[in-house]
Amino acid sequence: MVEIASRATARVDRTVKVHAYASAGIPLYLLLDSLAPDGPVCTLHGRPEKGTYREVGRVRFGEPIGLPAPFGLVIDTAEFPEA
User: How many domains does the chain have?
Assistant: First the structure.
């Protein structure tokens, strides 16, 4: 699952959806968040267990982020627009 945070949905994307997707057993949740309080970031949530994710990867826009199997790819975030 991939989400792009907007001003209208950012809070829900960062909190409610993280738990909802983990509870549903969605293996990965990638949030592209140009509005994050600490600057534009990509947050990868993984390994859902008991309604939450056990593994989190986080990079700033401009840095690559790797997706584990079954995707096994690296996303170059250098071209992601900042808010």
Answer: 1
CB 67 within 8 A of CB 30: yes
Give me the domain span that covers residue 41. Answer: 2-76
Whether the CB-CB separation of 29 and 17 falls below 8 Å is answered with yes
Q: Quick check: 37 pLDDT over 90?
A: yes
Whether 81 is covered by a domain: the verdict is no
Is 22 among the domain residues? yes
pLDDT tens for residues 58-83? Answer: 999 999 999 998 889 999 999 888 76
pTM of the predicted structure, to 2 decimals:
0.90
Find out whether 26 and 48 touch, Cβ atoms under 8 Å.
yes
CA distance 40 to 29: 17
